[in-house]
Amino acid sequence: MESQYKVNSNGGIESGATATTRVANKRNIRGWDLVLRFSALALSLAAAVVLGVDKETTTVSMTFFVVANAIACAHAAISLLLTLANRGGNKGIALMVVLFDLVMVALLFSGIGAALAIGLMGYEGNSHVQWKKVCNVFDKFCDQAAAAMGLSGAASVAFFLLVVLATLNLHKKH
Q1: Per-residue pLDDT for 84 more than 80?
Q2: Which H or E run includes 14?
Q3: Using an 8 Å Cβ cutoff, are 10 and 22 in contact?
Q4: Fewer CB atoms near the end CB (10 Å): N or C, the chain?
Q5: pLDDT digits (tens, 9 = 90+) for 41-81
Q6: 104-128 pLDDT per residue, tens
């Protein structure tokens, strides 16, 4: 079955029944891609710095959280450069970047989960094993951890939106 829509030379979509209609522009998609990549870079960097500079970060899960955000930040910087350099549209590079974006979503969500589990122990305590609350003693650390988790969550959403954008772009091309 042949589609009634065709892509014209301007990047718009033509319908067989009407005149040329511009539904989506490649520049708009590339612009959102760059904005989301830069946002993911800034947010993951901020999350790593906010928790990484704190003196209380000795728990393995908190260290994992900082390292996960540092890895995501490095990926965002490299993928931003690759995206800017890949103006010719090399599909192999674009596919590799999207796959690593998906890996970053998983990495950041796992880091957030690990840090949140320990953070809740510090905030609530655990009466079953006689662990006391510590956030009433280490207010600044708990506040910094919560802020870092929020920043990291926003970065993971930015990476997720990049994957969604790539999927929609792939669907639009076919």
Answers
A1: yes
A2: strand 13-15
A3: yes
A4: N
A5: 999 999 999 988 877 656 778 889 999 999 999 999 999 99
A6: 999 999 999 999 988 888 788 777 7
CA dihedral 91, 69, 64, 82 (to 10 degrees): 30
- DSSP category for residue 158: H
What's this model's pTM, rounded to 2 decimal places? 0.76
Q: What does the radius of gyration of the chain's CA atoms come to, in whole angstroms?
A: 21
Please give the Cα distance from 55 to 97 (Å, whole number): 34
Q: Which residues pair with 131 in a beta bridge?
A: 126
Task: Look at residue 5 in the predicted model and tell me its pLDDT.
Answer: 44
DSSP code per residue over 95-142: HHHHHHHHHHHHHHHHHHHHHHHHHHHHHH-BTTTTBPP-TTT-HHHH
Residue with tokens 């042949």: 2
Q: Which residue has the tokens 């708009």?
A: 28
Burial zone of 37 (CB within 10 Å; 0-12 exposed, 13-18 middle, 19+ buried): buried
For the record, the structure tokens of 52 come out as: 């990484």
